[in-house]
Design a protein that fits this description.
Largest sheet: 4 strands, antiparallel
Shape: globular
Distance between the termini: 28 Å
Radius of gyration: 19 Å
Strand order of the largest sheet: 3-4-2-5
Strand content: 5-15%
Structural class: alpha/beta
Amino acid sequence: MALDLHQASPRVRELFTLAGDITHVDLRNLLENGGREELQRTKNTQLAVTLASRSAHVRLTELGHVFTTHSGFSLGELSAYAGSGIISDETLFELVAIRAALMEQEAQRIQAALGEVGMAAVIGLPYDAVSELIKDRNDVYAANDNSPVQVVISGTLKAIEEVQERLKEHGARRIIPLRVSGPFHTPLMEGAIPCFEAAIGSLPFHDPRELVISSVTGMPVTSATQAKRTLITQLSKPVRWTKAVNTITSVKDSDSIVGEVGHGEILAKLVQDRLSVLPLGSEERIRAFHKGIKQ
């Protein structure tokens, strides 16, 4: 993850150094030598994913490619803000470190109070249907609107188990447990908001230079004030990725190329029936894309 970009680009190496200085984490060593358990800790996962996303963006801009629109799924929204100039990379990594620590602490507190927590992907039902079917619960929620046929529910493992039969009776084909450590993007996480709001309040935000589509609302973020409010509410609000993709599709012109700028191609696969997306998270793929554009 991003190590090939680190090797290829002086600007990416500078980004690694900056991220390490801000977070006091040796991110190159973490990515190169970190074990599965260490990398799956919320604070490490969020830093690694953010660094990979920003590294790919930096590499593409280094090669002369221009971005007109930015969006990000959950954590990726912070990288989108950095790409559009709402926040600097210094602020980005400071924010991610704070956000990750608070989310990890809150998840541990919830687990101590309510028992094991987590998330599961529901395949075969749309977001509104899943929300309606579990609206009588206060221990499990529809958290991620991934696509018209994929929704992630989030809450206690007991509650997730209890609602599975109801969801299957109404059309869910599969329910797949996810390897996450908290009930993210639900009201259960509201305890993390006051500290995050206090931290974010003193950090510099700017109005966006380019269009930014929020995964909280599915709509454009037009000001620094709105950007701050969106990031704060994001902790306990669902990810409305289907709405965001619909907006991206509506504003995309015929000459634009949509790329997944970060590690892997999960988002590209999520939207492949609605939008053509190029995975652009590795040096090999970025170089192939660049060569194809220049020919």
